[in-house]
UniProtKB/TrEMBL annotation:
Its EC number is 2.7.13.3. It comes from the Bacteria. This is histidine kinase. It comes from Sphingomonas naphthae. Residues 562-776 form the Histidine kinase domain. Keywords: Kinase, Phosphoprotein, Transferase, Two-component regulatory system. Pfam families: HATPase_c (PF02518), HisKA (PF00512), PAS_7 (PF12860).
């Protein structure tokens, strides 16, 4: 047994520890190398996978021309066997073109010599695919690595982009030409917002010399603001598409105009803009506003209901008659209800036609907004109201609705049609021949009588012939053909000179017509013909009879006058001898004889007076009564007549009252004839008043006339007696009427340009009123009627 000292044991222990430590380090290092190997293997596998899936396929060419990694490329090129050399890439019928393989071999050789890469594009025969071959030298191994990349899609894209670039270049050139030719200023600003590009209109607007000079000088279109900068960046940011639109005044070519400026930020490319002269547009808008105000004021005054709807179908305007025609609240209308809402409210108020399918009916009316032509309808409302509805589409998509109440118009139209039919029937059945001529002389209307009188055909007259043609047609039918032109002249006078003419015309067949040409209010002329043949014959007969009667009347008057004169001689003789007997020339008479003689004297006097009245009346009727003309005081004449009648009234127990104006009332006339009239009135009043009665005689004025009133309270006159009181047929005593006294009084008063009226009531009395014109008009109190 070997016994080691402590020092040896320590050394051995140290060695053992060292080897243990080395063993542990070797173990750890091995494990780390194994881990790194696995990581390298994984990375190698990943890289191999990336190379296998990469769009570019590698091919390694060594110094002797052999290739590696060509299996995948061979399959991709369609080679039957993997290539071993570059020349294998040009297999017949497959692979690359032979000339391209030869060129590729030269490129590889050049790369090996110069250690510089290369690129070559190869077009595959038959397929049209394009391969890009990039070669890189491996300076360590001396090999050349070739990467084959399929550039077919890229080349096509490049080709497309090239065409697109050419197209865009043309568009840019065209756009530049358009911008330069634009009639309004356009510009572009850089990132610093300074002018970078302007067109010709901008140069002309700022009165510059050229675009370069304007850009260099920075001439702005708008005037400088308060900050002193001519251009103010709009508060919209610099994001593209944030467009700024503003309206501002500017000096354009030396004139102050209103322009609309549009700025379009382009991001980092700066900002583009243009300006449009809106001076005329603003004026047009102002004119449009004034026009709209005037139009709405006019629509508000229309008698038709008007409602205007906007493009959104809401109510934007209505006039006063709309509210009167449709009982809708103005407050509700002011809210701008829609077209459908208004139709519904109108239906509730029974102001739309009844419809079974109201939603469909409403949809049809809603289509008015999309119509291109005005629509017109007639609405019959439940209450019998007729509405004429006109829907006018507006350019802004709105609708103008005009509703006119045609109820009264239709009623008037029906009445007019009825009147026209009645007028036509009346016109055609009149006895007169009627024709209406227009201002140009053409016959417009005629009745059947007109056609029959002139013996013209219906076809000829319905062609509205001119009056010249009618004159030629009717001339042969006239007794004097030369008078046919009178018809033409009458029509001319009535239509042109607007004067009426009448006359007579004779026909060849013996008929006679009265004609008249009357101007009508519408400028036409009415020509009428009335057959007066029968009336003319009757008139001729009546004229002959009247001449005979006048001759007979003259003979009667002459006979009466002659007989009145002849009777005066024996009456005078009888009166003379009776008066002599009464005066006792033949001796004393007994009482009975005296009574007989007094009766003879009274009868002779009465007969003498009657004969005088007859003679005066006869002379008055034939106009031969002699009258003097002098100023006569009616008041004095009335007093004389009253004084003469006092005795007769006293004998008959009649109270005679007088009321005579104290002033003189004078007339021009014959005092004897006027006294005769007064005497007759007083005598009649006294004779027809019973005893105890009253007769009143008054004289006064009534306006500019002397008024004489003789009244009594006798029995009065019956209506028959009153109607015939002034007819001089009843001659006799009281039983036969009032004789010829009143007719004679009437003749005498009228000969003095006066009037005699008689008022009588049975059982009340009679009043005779004479009115004569005054020769002077002093202020007097009127007695009244």
């Amino acid at each position: 047994m070997i016994v080691l000292d402590r020092a040896d044991a320590a050394v051995l222990a140290a060695i053992a520890v060292f080897w243990i430590a080395m063993a542990a380090w070797a173990t750890v290092a091995g494990m780390r190398r194994a881990s790194q190997g696995r990581a390298v293997g994984d990375e190698t596998s990943r890289l191999a996978s990336l190379i296998a899936t990469a769009p570019a396929m590698p091919l390694v060419v060594d110094g002797e021309g052999r290739v590696e990694q060509g299996t995948r490329l061979g399959r991709w090129l369609g080679l039957p066997e993997p290539p071993t050399t570059l020349t294998d890439l040009a297999d017949e019928g497959f692979g690359l073109p032979e000339k391209d393989v030869e060129a590729l071999s030269r490129d590889v050789a050049a790369t090996r010599r110069s250690a510089r890469g290369f690129s070559r594009a190869i077009t595959m025969a038959g397929s049209g695919r394009v391969l890009l071959v990039k070669g890189q030298p491996d300076t360590v191994t001396g090999r050349v690595i070739l990467w084959f990349i399929d550039m077919t899609d890229s080349e096509r894209e490049i080709e497309r982009l090239g065409v697109e670039v050419l197209r865009l270049r043309g568009m840019i050139e065209a756009l530049s030409t358009l911008i330069e030719a634009a009639p309004f200023p356009m510009w572009h600003r850089g990132a610093d917002l300074r002018l970078n590009l302007v067109n010709g209109a901008y140069v002309r607007a700022v009165e510059g010399q050229s675009a370069q000079q304007v850009v260099k000088s920075g001439l702005e279109l708008l005037e400088a603001g308060n900050s002193g900068r001519a251009f103010q960046v709009p508060s919209l940011g610099r994001e593209p598409g944030a467009v700024s639109i503003r309206t501002a005044p500017a000096i354009i070519a030396g004139e102050r105009r209103t322009i609309r400026v549009v700025d379009v930020p382009l991001g980092e490319a700066g900002m583009a803009g243009y300006a449009i002269d809106v001076e005329e547009l603003e004026e047009a808008r102002a004119d449009l506003r004034r026009f709209v105000v005037a139009q709405r004021d006019m629509l508000d005054r229309l008698s038709a209901a008007v409602a205007q709807f906007g493009g959104d179908h809401s109510l934007v305007f209505y006039n006063r008659h709309f509210i009167r025609l449709f009982p809708l609240e103005p407050e509700w209308l002011a809210e701008g209800p829609t077209f459908d809402r208004i139709l519904e409210r109108m239906r509730e108020e029974q102001r739309v036609p009844e419809a079974r399918d109201f939603p469909g009916w409403k949809a049809e009316r809603r289509a008015w907004f999309n119509s291109t032509t005005p629509m017109e309808e007639s609405w019959l409302l439940p209450g019998g109201t007729h509405l004429r509805v006109v829907a006018q589409p507006l350019p802004d998509g709105g609708l103008l609705l005009i509703m006119e109440d045609r109820t009264e118009h239709l009623q008037l139209a029906r009445a007019r049609d009825t009147l026209l039919r009645v007028r036509t029937a009346t016109f055609d059945n009149l006895f007169e021949a009627i024709g209406v001529f227009a201002a140009d002389g053409r016959l417009q209307l005629f009745n059947s009588r007109f056609r029959d009188v002139w013996k013209l055909s219906e076809e000829h007259l319905t062609n509205h012939p001119r009056v010249d043609t009618l004159v030629q047609a009717i001339a042969p039918q006239l007794a004097d053909p030369s008078r046919a032109g009178l018809v033409r002249e009458l029509v001319r006078v009535a239509t042109v000179e607007r004067q009426q003419r009448v006359g007579r015309i004779a026909m060849k067949d013996g008929r006679h017509f009265e004609f008249a040409a009357v101007p009508l209010p519408d400028g036409n002329a009415l020509f009428t013909l009335l057959d007066v043949t029968a009336s003319r014959d009757i008139e001729h007969a009546l004229r002959e009879r009247n001449d005979a009667l006048e001759a007979t009347d003259r003979m009667k008057s002459a006979f009466v006058a002659n007989m009145s004169y002849e009777l005066r001689v024996p009456l005078t003789t009888i009166a003379g001898f009776a008066e002599m007997l009464a005066d006792g020339y033949a001796g004393d008479l007994s009482e009975t004889a005296r009574q007989y003689v007094d009766a003879i004297v009274h009868a002779v006097g009465r007969l003498s007076q009657l004969m005088g009245d007859v003679l005066d009346l006869t002379q008055s009727e034939v106009g031969s009564l002699p009258l003097s003309r002098a100023s006569v005081d009616i008041c004095d004449l009335a007093k004389q007549a009253l004084d003469a009648a006092e005795e007769t009234a006293r004998v008959g127990n009649i109270h005679l009252k007088r009321a005579i104006d104290p002033q003189s009332l004078c007339v021009m006339g014959d005092d004897m004839r006027l006294r005769q009239a007064f005497d007759h009135l007083l005598r009649n009043a006294i004779d027809y008043t019973q005893g105890g009665g009253e007769v009143r005689f008054s004289v006064g004025t009534s306006g500019e006339q002397v008024q004489v009133i003789v009244s009594d309270n006798g029995p009065g006159l019956s209506p028959d007696q009153h109607r015939s009181i002034f007819e001089p047929r009843q001659i006799g005593g009281v039983e036969d009427g009032r004789g010829i006294g009143l007719p004679l009084v009437k003749q005498l008063v009228e000969a003095h340009e006066g009037t005699l009226t008689l008022e009588s009531q049975p059982g009340v009395g009679t009043r005779a009123i004479i009115r004569l014109p005054l020769t002077d008009t002093p202020a007097r109190v009127s007695l009244g009627a």
